[in-house]
Specification:
heterodimer, A: alpha/beta, 14% strand, B: elongated
Chain lengths: 543, 183
């Protein structure tokens, strides 16, 4: 049915880079062409992604009943969808129903991600109409000390992985007497399986600006730096544009929202160094140096960027702050379990049928996330393991999938909740190869400052190879154990300190893969160690 | 834009970029990104100019250029393809993509002899729910298969094939994994 009425139908097509990676731009282009031909009146809005990534590109049409979703839509489906009456929410094999009522989404508690996928990320009107700036306005009516008290009371812990209470960090910076202080956001999200930072920067950039501005008010900072990894060009472009727009609207700059607060924000682009996700390495990089870690103390809160008191927080921490201020500490604190308060943005990736973002209160189990939300593996083969918390997190066997998602429960189980990234593997995985990769990754990405990490990781690869080959197996297992102890205790930062976690968990839970007791499935193991015969040169995967 | 200019043109580009970033704190990384954007790489002759312009030692500048994976000492090929090898993509057969590139005669980290393509590895493109992921000339591709990688390596701008969640795993994980499924 042709839409010949004078009002154009509003159709949302995500601009999120995951959606674009499977054809969202082509879908938006096909819709535009239909509109240009004059067949249909369509107003295409590029929103963020709702986080149901297996349905991307997911197109939403505004109807009197609500937003109706269709997906996954290919460009070639567009004409058929339009002809079927998509603009009126009509039935079609790709029709998903009212998006807000989809069980996957409806069951979640979206706090940090409340606007992501709903709004046009760069529309200031959308932002304020959907509750934006309420947190900043509330904060500006309070003294800095009261803002810090609110954040402390909310129980918000750093979402970057270490889980340090955000309010305690902020209070340290507030208490420093210095005319120049900084707020730095670490958006060097380099962990495999984590993409929430990217999605919120691409899908709701003003939220991060608002969070950093609240932090600036709370601690007395006048300058902010947003350090984004170069692997995220869309996030960089979106944040730059949002910052420009925010300046034009008086949301950044001098006298923010008519208050006495002066704060400006700069985007800095990383250069492909995983280690710069570590806060002190990021500070070195911002100073224009090699991204090597600093020994602590002094802590960055006291001597941070250019030696000045500095708040360093992760994207999700800072994007949660406006909600805490807008709704009050109590409301946020009311969610979660134990000392893990509020919500976490879990990221389901890897070999999973329904991958994406699940924001929910702490305490949900790994099994609920992987099986209920995620629908098991994408290949349809049995689940074997999930790595939680990034490349430095533990590989957990399915027998541990009932573990609640809670910082302390994970630590007790010898694992790490980290950033909330979950990477799923089916039974074709070779866990000795995964353990070897953890060491190899550390060797490739170590900043090189301390010996346990720089050299230990190279030796780790060699020792694992010997174990797998059956060479002096008992001696080499003991050596690996010793090496893991040394790296854990002797490394300056989490890179060398946590690399033993995936290695040990693989060895503990899947010993047969190392000891030759498991007949590997009929799958060709592709090892990075295979010498490249063609040129005789090995350039990849070595330190 | 030049990729192999004379010393003089490198010097003038670097001096202008340094002047553009003079008021930034700790400007070396933004300066190096800008130099690479203009010249395609950071040539050796840029190092003393950068050191002079930013009041750093040559060793400092050299140390930074060589520390970060992004900065190139040599120009890249006309097409740059980066294959994600992090865990999420590994779980969906990223190594098969690497093998495919090798079998095509390409070495990770190197540019093909004819200067057509540079193939590299990268650890995580943030597309972990739609892996395996590959980036080609700044564009991100999800659910990559060896055959689609082939067209990227040939420098063909690869249109988005029609795909559904049901059919992609087979396309992506064809070959060994499917063999395993049926075994």
């Amino acid at each position: 049915m042709k839409n010949s009425s004078h009002t154009a139908a509003t159709v949302y097509v995500p601009r999120d880079s995951a959606a674009r990676s499977v054809g969202a731009d082509e879908v938006a282009g096909a819709l535009q062409r239909a509109a240009t031909r004059g067949d249909f009146a369509i107003d295409v809005v590029r929103n963020g992604s709702r986080g149901m990534l297996w349905l991307e590109p997911m197109v939403e049409v505004v109807t009197p009943q609500g937003r109706v979703g269709y997906g996954p839509v290919a460009a070639g489906d567009v004409d058929g969808l339009l002809a079927a009456g998509m603009l009126d929410g009509a039935d079609h094999p790709l029709r998903l129903g009212l998006v807000d009522e989809l069980p996957w989404l409806a069951r979640q508690t979206r706090v940090t991600f409340a606007r992501v996928g709903v709004t046009d990320p760069l529309s200031t009107r959308d932002y304020t109409e959907h509750g934006g700036l309420a947190g900043l306005r509330a904060a500006l009516d309070m003294t800095p000390a009261d803002v810090v008290a609110q954040v402390t009371e909310s129980g918000l812990r750093g979402r970057g992985g270490a889980g340090f209470p955000a309010g305690v960090k902020w209070k340290t910076v507030l208490d420093c007497a210095d005319e120049l202080k900084f707020v730095c956001c670490n958006a060097d999200e380099g962990d495999s399986g984590t993409f929430a930072d990217r999605m919120v920067m691409e899908g709701d950039p003003f939220l991060l600006i608002e969070g950093m501005t609240i932090a600036a008010h709370a601690v007395g900072a006048s300058e902010g730096y947003l350090y984004i990894r170069s692997e995220y060009p869309d996030a960089i472009a979106t944040m730059r544009e949002a910052i420009e727009t925010a300046r034009e609207h008086g949301w950044l700059g001098k006298g923010i929202l008519g208050s006495a607060l002066d704060f400006d924000l700069h985007v800095r682009v990383g250069a492909g160094a995983y280690i710069c996700g570590e806060e002190t390495s990021m500070l070195e990089s911002l100073e224009g140096k090699r991204g090597t870690v600093r020994a602590k103390p002094p802590i960055p809160a006291i001597e941070g960027l250019f030696g000045k008191p500095t708040v360093v927080n992760n994207v999700l921490t800072l994007t949660t702050v406006p909600v805490v201020l807008a709704n009050g500490a109590k409301a946020y604190q009311g969610l979660g379990v134990g000392r893990s308060r509020g919500t976490q943005v879990f990221q389901l990736g890897g070999n999973i049928a329904r991958g994406g973002i699940v924001e929910t209160a702490f305490g949900i189990t790994l099994r609920e996330l992987i099986e209920d939300y995620g629908g098991g593996t994408r290949t349809g083969r049995p689940l074997r393991t999930a790595q939680v918390g990034g490349p430095l997190g533990a590989y957990l066997p399915t027998s541990m999938f009932d573990l609640p998602m809670d910082y302390e429960a994970f630590a007790e189980a010898g694992a790490m909740l980290g950033h909330g990234g979950i990477v799923v593997f089916d039974d074709s995985v070779d866990m000795a190869a995964q353990a070897r990769f953890a060491m190899e990754f550390c060797a490739a990405e170590s900043c090189g400052k301390c010996t346990p990490c720089r050299v230990g990781s190279v030796r780790g690869v060699e020792v694992i190879d010997k174990i797998v080959a059956g060479t002096h197996r008992d001696e080499n297992l003991a050596l690996l154990e010793d090496l893991c102890d040394l790296m854990t205790d002797g490394s300056l930062c989490a890179m060398g300190g946590l690399t033993p976690m995936p290695v040990r968990s693989a060895l503990t839970h899947f010993p047969d893969d190392f000891l030759g007791g498991r007949r590997l499935l009929d799958i060709q193991p592709v090892r990075a160690s295979q010498p490249v015969q063609a040129s005789g040169a090995r350039t990849e995967g070595t330190a | 834009m030049t990729t192999s200019g004379s010393d003089m043109s490198v010097e003038s580009v670097v001096r202008r970029v340094v002047a553009d970033h003079r008021d930034q704190r700790g400007a070396l990384l933004p300066v190096l990104h800008a130099v690479q954007a203009e010249l395609g790489h950071v040539p050796q002759e840029a190092i003393p100019v950068l050191a002079d312009g930013l009041n750093l030692s040559r060793a400092d500048v050299h140390g930074v250029v060589t520390f970060y994976h992004d900065f190139r000492r040599e120009p890249a090929g006309r097409t740059t393809v980066r294959i994600c090898r992090a865990e999420a993509c590994q779980s969906l057969g990223a190594d098969r993509l690497v093998s495919y590139a090798r079998e095509s005669g390409l070495t990770l980290g190197e540019t093909s002899a004819d200067g057509a393509v540079t193939v590299e590895q990268v650890f995580c493109l943030g597309n972990c729910a739609l892996g395996p992921a590959v980036e080609a000339n700044g564009r991100l591709y999800g659910r990559m298969s060896p055959s689609r990688l082939g067209s990227l390596l040939d420098g063909a701008p690869n249109g988005m094939p029609k795909q559904t969640p049901e059919e992609t795993p087979n396309e992506t994980l064809d070959g060994t994994l499917n063999a395993a499924v049926s075994s």
